[in-house]
Specification:
76% of the residues lie in helices and 0% in strands. By secondary structure, the protein is mainly alpha-helical. The model has no long low-confidence stretch (mean pLDDT 89). The protein has 20 helices and no strands.
Length: 421
Amino acid sequence: MKQLLFIFGVLAFAAVGIMVHPFWGIIPYYTFSIIQPQNLWDWALPGGVRWSLMAALIALLAAVLHLPRIITRARWNGVATLMLIFSGLIMLSSLTAFDTSVALEWGTIYAKILIMAALTTLLVDRLDQVRILAYLILSTITYLAWHFNSLYLFEGRLDIFHRGLGIFDNNGAGLLIAMGIPFAYALFFMARHIVARLAIGGAVILMVHAVMMSYSRGAMLSAAVGAAWVLWHHRPRRHAVWLCAGLIAVSMLLAGREIREEFLSMRDYDTDETAQFRIASWTAAWNIAWQYPVLGTGPRNSNLFSYNYGADLLGRTIHSQYLQIAADIGFPALTVYLSMSALAMFGLHRSRQKLLAASRELTARHHAEQHAALARAPRGQALAPDQKHALYRLQRRAKYCRDMSYVMLAYQGSLVIFLVA
């Protein structure tokens, strides 16, 4: 019952929120996309109800209700343009696919993701909303991590390894949870109270352990690379050193013998059977891509051919998003996808640099005006209330820009985790 009440509460909140601003219309979609209640709570929810469709309809309704605002205030960008081109290539590949039923199924999934991504580009028009999405991502992924950890600790079940999450296998579920770690970093430094920081630290422990329980070497490696990316770009360096030491200590404490052996087996890829199967699937995908270089075989159609090109099993999935795209949709689509990813990384980097520059400028102004005000004030007399308020506002604006730079770095780190997998 509580699961159903939560879903209705999220939908009702968004339905009311879109009357004020269209941004609130995307909250249910991203909440349900991460938690996937139809799979996670299938035992508690009525069957046959498409919750994600309800969420998408609310987002579309928000766009319709606020269409004049969107037209006048939305900013179209290069990433959105590349998403449209990528969508067109998926559609053409689906039309020429060998198995159109499989292509239609996966093409529909791609279309939903790209439509909602484009809609988010149009509906998000303030920095505060980017921060709210960061809070949403962290809270929902923390819940997933707690869910899988509680099943393991109290019932001895490794659901994340054996069942995955919805359409995700253990690799996808582990990767999804790993992408929450950079957001925990950002909100840790944004938090003002020690209790909030301790809670976020606990969330990181849950996420790290959930990633380990997935036994996905790709998710573990991606999490390590993403964390390294974030810490490398963090200032001051001493904070990064302490965080790195803490993450290593937590990882060593949580990693049992089997998990350590699974992760370190990447060194012996030439003798590891699983690694050899994966390399064989990559080789098959590469050969398929060169056989059908323009539009590929169709979305997820390469799995139907992988065995004929050297994979170990019929229907073997290509465990590389880049080779999967090349084999399924063609090299032009792969080029667009890589360009879209690079442009997104560059845009996040540029936004972060602007925020850091603004924070430094505002801090310098605060110090200069504070010094000037104290110099003008009579000896022993406090500053006037309006002077204190002006200095306080400068200080708050500087902190806001600094906090948002953490958020931008978190989005970058999460994207790095996704792209490394």
